[in-house]
Amino acid sequence: MTQTPIHAVVREHYAERARKSDSCCAPDATSACCDTKNVIYTDELLATVPDDIASFSLGCGDPITLAALQPGQTVLDLGSGGGLDCFLAAKKVGESGHVIGVDMTPEMLEKARASAKRMGVTNVEFRQGFLEDLPVDSNSIDVTISNCVINLSPDKAKVFSEVFRVLKPGGRLAVSDIVTDGPLPDAIKQSLSMWAGCVAGAVDAKDYIAMMETVGFTEITVTPTFFDKETVDEAIKEVGDKIDLKSVSQDELYKTVYSARITARKPGSL
Ligand SMILES: C[S@@+](CC[C@H](N)C(=O)[O-])C[C@H]1O[C@@H](n2cnc3c(N)ncnc32)[C@H](O)[C@@H]1O
């Protein structure tokens, strides 16, 4: 698959996030820049994960609890980043299960593989690839999870058709993602750094649902969890003065962009 300019910008953004965290969040690092506690998941879920791995989380929700994973299942994580959701999923599916994390950014894969080795996790593998062209066999996955990644894709319809292809009949999708209620201002939509910051690529929940329906998903639910003020603030901070945001009301943005829990099923039975 040929990478688009959006892929290139997103990839560099997350490569930098991985490099930065390697320089200051390593277990033996002296800097305290990574000591923020992960409040997305319950303490119980994070109990077996070293603090520095648990705190490297760029997600917007808890797809693990949403997915209600069972021992023996095969799980795919779209945009696995530093690997935290894969490690939590690995615990749930146990030794008889298997977890595949897919990410396009080599620096993230390197980080995730190093953490897996350090934790001694053997039922997880990380593969390099695009969400729009998954390096995964058809009809092989019980549950696909993802945390704040589908919004980053320039071709979400292709992502959903790929997820549908790799799921077994009866398989499920359980993701946390950013969606919108209504359109985003043009100035935001045209900014590549706002795209990398998980804002500009977010689509209206109605369009998100329509894309899933088109490829064949059923039992689709989209449950808003919180208005994502933090993501909006962070993206705006990173943009700096690269784009003119004078015409954009930050308050309107806060009311448009939100995190949601999204579930769906591929028809059939497991
Ligand atoms: C916001 S981070 C989320 C990482 C992880 N899910 C988490 O919760 O910490 C997005 C990740 O998705 C990856 N990514 C974004 N778009 C992608 C695409 N089209 N194909 C593959 N990976 C992608 C990035 O490289 C990055 O690691």
Give the SSE layout.
Blueprint: H1 5-24, H2 43-46, H3 51-55, H4 63-67, E1 74-78, H5 84-93, E2 98-103, H6 106-119, E3 124-128, E4 141-147, H7 156-166, E5 167-180, H8 186-189, H9 192-196, H10 205-215, E6 218-227, H11 229-239, H12 250-256, E7 257-265
Parallel strand pairs: 1-2, 1-4, 2-3, 4-5
Antiparallel strand pairs: 5-7, 6-7
Helix pairs in contact: 1-6, 7-10
Bound molecules: S-adenosylmethionine.
S-adenosylmethionine (SAM) binds next to helix 1 and helix 5.
Averaging pLDDT over every residue, what do you get? 91
Helix content: 25-40%
> Span between N and C termini?
30 Å
Distinct bound molecules: S-adenosylmethionine
Query: What strand line-up does the widest sheet have?
Result: 3-2-1-4-5-7-6
H/E series = HHHHEHEHEEHEHHHEHHE
Short description:
The chain has 270 residues and is α/β, with parallel strands linked by helices.
What does this structure look like?
This protein is of the alpha/beta class and 270 residues long. It has one domain (5-265): Vaccinia Virus protein VP39 (Rossmann fold). Helix content is 40%, strand content 21%. The chain is built from twelve helices and seven strands. The chain has helices at residues 5-24, 43-46, 51-55, 63-67, 84-93, 106-119, 156-166, 186-189, 192-196, 205-215, 229-239, 250-256; strands at residues 74-78, 98-103, 124-128, 141-147, 167-180, 218-227, 257-265. A seven-stranded mixed sheet has the order 3-2-1-4-5-7-6, with helices on both faces. Helix 6 links the parallel strand 2 (98-103) and strand 3. Mean pLDDT is 91; it is low at 29-33.
